[in-house]
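Progress report, Aim 2. The chain analyzed during this reporting quarter is listed below.
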Amino acid sequence: MSLIVDTSVALTWIFADEGTDETEALLDRVRDDGGVVPALWEYEVGNALLVAVRRGRLEQPAARQALTLLRAVNLQVDRSPVDLTRVVGLAATHDLSVYDAAYLDLALSRGLPLATLDDRLARAATAVGVAVLPDEN
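Predicted structure tokens for the chain:
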């Protein structure tokens, strides 16, 4: 596995107007080398697609296609037990949501870079020595 992927990056693979050359390169990297996501990623992605349908950004068939596309990407869902005390501690220390801290914790525990477009999460990752992708974060 090559990196941890957060929802902000994965959604750029669905919404063409949000994608960049850098996020497309991350998609290629994940397809080739694999990526890891925490179990909550499935809920976050599902919710984002549902909201997009409700707001008229996507039609229901396109949302189903998006789920199919994301299932086909080489992502491993990490279902190992979570040390909630450690995750909440990261969230408190770095002013993150517990959800975002889960990505940071997974990157730390796996020793992998974190692919995120979230500035606050990128700053926290950098502060604890986790590499952030794409590089402009």
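The domain at 3-40+74-133 is CATH 3.40.50.1010 (Rossmann fold). The beta strands are 3-5, 35-38, 75-78, 114-115, 132-133. These observations will guide the mutagenesis work planned for the next reporting period.
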